[in-house]
Design goal:
The protein is built from 19 helices and 19 strands. It has 494 residues and is α+β, with helices and mostly antiparallel strands. Helix 3 runs parallel beside helix 4, helix 12 packs antiparallel against helix 15 and helix 18 crosses helix 19.
Length: 494
């Protein structure tokens, strides 16, 4: 949910400070960072930005050590636009460590570090040491990301060497970088690798070059005996048959229709998931003849972009633990997507339900590959896009829950399961109030008689007949039967 007014005001102050930042490098883009520290009673203790007193100094260092070094900061609240760093060259100390040592009680963070090898480690370090962590409101997160776009793009286009085992902060998911010793480079699909590289606009560098690129990106690693083998992320993304190596990679996909079950389980590399998913959904979801003014258009029950978003999130942000898999089920009146693992702290169910959850991934290396494939358009806007696509399609927004170890997304379907005809939101909005009420009754019951229209609208039968006639002329309703058996239903129905 959105922050309260006090927290929101200090978040906005941190964003204003961020815009004053000074860069110290000419060869790369440095982040814009603003930080604000507030005492227990809500009193402002200080505000600063990167490079405030000295070029290169981090905002947290300037605030905690330079401005407030002689103050008791125990229980204070930090508002910082970028996740505190976890590594500095000695004798410098990491900002996450400084925050913990200052005994800060709460921290609000604008965005996580875009480097997938660091993303979430600062957050995790704070959580591990008892600091309450939350995020800025999503609209501010978008501002922060937009103004740091060059810094973000720099890291998202670099292949970074994974952190060593001596790195003290685990980060969101050590599992995705776990080396699968029983697999080998030959288990990876040439087609999947070629597709990934083509999408990124990279030329084939030869087998040795591909290995170097994958190792640098965290998709290959060394076994204890020095052999180069795929990591869990590498298997998930590029293996010819991931489910044969890691059975939990299999995605269970099912459509339930009139008591029958149609399965379309996915067992291939994640780079091929979208095409498989689209084909199954298009073949198995219900389709309607939608009335759009004078046009009749065949549309799927659900907007494809909402289904994709929910399913991509499920496979990208899940826990890749043995014995659990993603389940995608098309039911009679809804689609349910179940993903192993809860929300990654400090994300909360209330934030997700308010569509105010910033981007924060359990598997940043897998997420980055999916982004590079073009499946994720704008980080941090996925939930809102899903909601907006559902509403624009005339459906209710998605709902979210956590149960029995699974994060569950439910997309409500078309209410009238009996009809193959529906009215577009635009066509419905163009009707006057009596006509809308008639259409609502038809949508709920399937059909309506003239006398029932008159009774529902509290008008004469002649007036009701006129309303119904206008809807027939517009092509929205059509009449069936004669005399006492005359009824009206949506145009184009059976």
């Amino acid at each position: 949910m959105p922050a309260n007014k006090t927290d929101r005001a200090f978040m906005e102050m941190a964003v204003q400070e961020m815009r004053k930042s000074r860069s110290e490098h000419t060869s790369k883009h440095d982040p814009l960072v603003g930080a604000v520290l507030v005492g227990k009673g809500g009193k402002l203790l200080g505000a600063t930005h990167r490079g405030d007193l000295r070029v290169g100094d981090h905002a947290e260092y300037t605030l905690i050590e330079r401005y407030l070094g002689d103050k008791n900061l125990e229980g204070s609240t930090l508002y910082v636009t970028l996740e505190p760093c976890t590594r500095r060259n000695p004798p410098k100390k990491a900002c996450a460590e400084r925050v913990v040592n200052a005994r800060v009680g709460r921290a609000f963070i604008g965005m996580t570090d875009p480097n997938p090898d660091i993303c979430g480690r600062g957050v995790q370090h704070l959580l591990n040491h008892g600091v309450e962590v939350d995020f800025f409101d999503l609209d501010l997160v978008r501002q922060i990301r937009q103004e740091n776009q060059e810094f973000i793009e720099y890291y998202e286009t670099q292949e970074k060497k994974p952190l060593t085992d001596t790195e003290p902060f685990e980060g969101p998911s050590p599992k995705e970088l776990e080396v699968v010793a029983r697999a080998s480079f030959d288990d990876l699909s040439n087609e999947a690798l070629s597709r990934y590289m083509a999408q990124r606009g990279l030329e084939a560098p030869g087998k040795a070059g591909v290995r170097k690129m994958l190792a640098g990106a965290g998709y290959l690693g060394r076994t204890p005996d020095g052999k180069l083998a795929p990591t869990v992320a590498g298997i998930v993304l590029f293996a010819t048959a991931p489910a044969e190596i890691l059975p939990q990679c299999r995605v269970s996909i099912e459509a339930r229709k009139a008591g029958a079950s149609i399965t379309g389980d996915f067992e291939g590399p994640l780079t091929a998931f979208r095409d498989h998913l689209d084909k199954f959904l298009k073949e198995n979801m219900r389709h309607f003849t939608e009335i759009r003014e004078l046009d009749r258009v065949t549309v799927g029950e659900y907007p494809l972009e909402a289904l994709r978003e929910a399913c991509f999130n499920a496979v990208v942000h899940r826990q890749y633990l043995a014995g659990a898999r993603v389940h995608i089920t098309l039911k009679e009146t809804e689609v349910e997507i179940r993903s192993p693992g809860g929300l990654l702290k400090p994300l909360s169910l209330s934030r997700v339900r308010a569509f105010n959850a910033p981007p924060y991934s359990r598997n940043p290396h897998i997420a980055l590959a999916v982004q590079r494939l073009g499946w994720i358009e704008e980080k941090g806007s996925g939930l809102a896009r899903m909601r907006d696509a559902m509403v624009a399609h005339g459906l209710r927004p998605p709902s979210f829950d956590f149960k029995d170890g699974y994060f569950i997304v439910t997309l409500p379907g078309q209410d009238q399961a009996w009809s193959s005809v529906r009215l577009s939101p635009g066509a419905f909005a163009a009707l006057d109030e009596p006509q809308r009420k008639i259409v609502e009754i038809v949508l709920a019951k399937g059909r309506i008689a003239t006398k029932d229209s008159a009774k529902s609208l509290n008008v004469s039968v002649a007036t009701a007949r006129r309303y119904l006639g206008n809807l027939v002329k517009k092509g929205i309703l059509e009449s069936r039967g004669r005399g006492s058996r005359l009824t009206y239903q949506l145009g184009g129905g059976e």
